[in-house]
Amino acid sequence: xxxxxxxxxxxxxxxxxxxxxxxxxxxxxxxxxxxxxxxxxxxxxxxxxxxxxxxxxxxxxxxxxxxxxxxxxxxxxxxxxxxxxxxxxxxxxx
Length: 94
Prior knowledge:
- By secondary structure, the protein is of the alpha+beta class.
- It is about 20% helix and about 45% strand.
- Strands 1-2-3 form a three-stranded antiparallel beta sheet, covered by helices on one side. The protein has a three-stranded antiparallel beta sheet with strand order 4-5-6, with no helix packed on it.
- A hairpin with a 2-residue loop joins strand 2 and strand 3.
- The mean pLDDT is about 90.
């Protein structure tokens, strides 16, 4: 179920990028695999524009999210349960 939920979140983000970002100004790429020193990394969305290059990591989560830029793990709290997940700011650290 979480794989489907993640896939739907990525498709929703791609749709909103298509809807709201001008094709003339922004070039959008989705689901990119890049080789790195420790294997490969996957980028959900890459946006290239005159304003910069942006990597967008999509998370489709509800509830309260707790974390900081320097912590390896963040926590999702929902319906009295807590779940840990990798910090999305360091996810594509290659």
